[in-house]
Design a protein that fits this description.
Largest sheet: none
Shape: elongated
Strand content: under 5%
Helix content: over 70%
Number of strands: 0
Mean pLDDT: 92
Number of helices: 6
Distance between the termini: 24 Å
Order of helices and strands: HHHHHH
Structural class: mainly alpha
Length: about 170
Amino acid sequence: MQTLFRLQPYFSALYLLFVGVSLGTIFASGALCAPTIFRAASIAHGLEITVFQSGVLMTNIFVKLNFMLNALALVILVYEMLSWRIGGAKLAPILGFVSIILIFLFTLYYTPYILEAQKIGEDGIASLAFQGMHEQSVLVFKTLMISLCLLFIVRVLQIYGGYRGR
């Protein structure tokens, strides 16, 4: 057990690295890739790409991102459960569990729905139901980014600043 406590700073650093990289990836895909892909026809003159085709490209990015997010959810689950059990922290585990719920909502509920709608074609994404689900998925994605950012900040303060989050 003493070896585990000596390795704890290294586990914490890896945890923060993984959360930070995931935050960067979420930001890059949502704030940098999506606007570029959905405006591709106006950016690259002569490029003939529809909104549906842009959506297919963006969904492909999110499908790949989902693998990392699901791995992140498992890492958060293990780390925060151990942290809660060993150290008695409360705020960070709550933020972690909220993040896990949002990750699984995005990866296991919204992404499959969008993929199924895209299989139908342009008619599949033209419905009001799809528009509502897409807006919800965007909201979940933004909320996930906020919860992970808060989790990262609380953990940095706790690990390196002495804040206990209780």
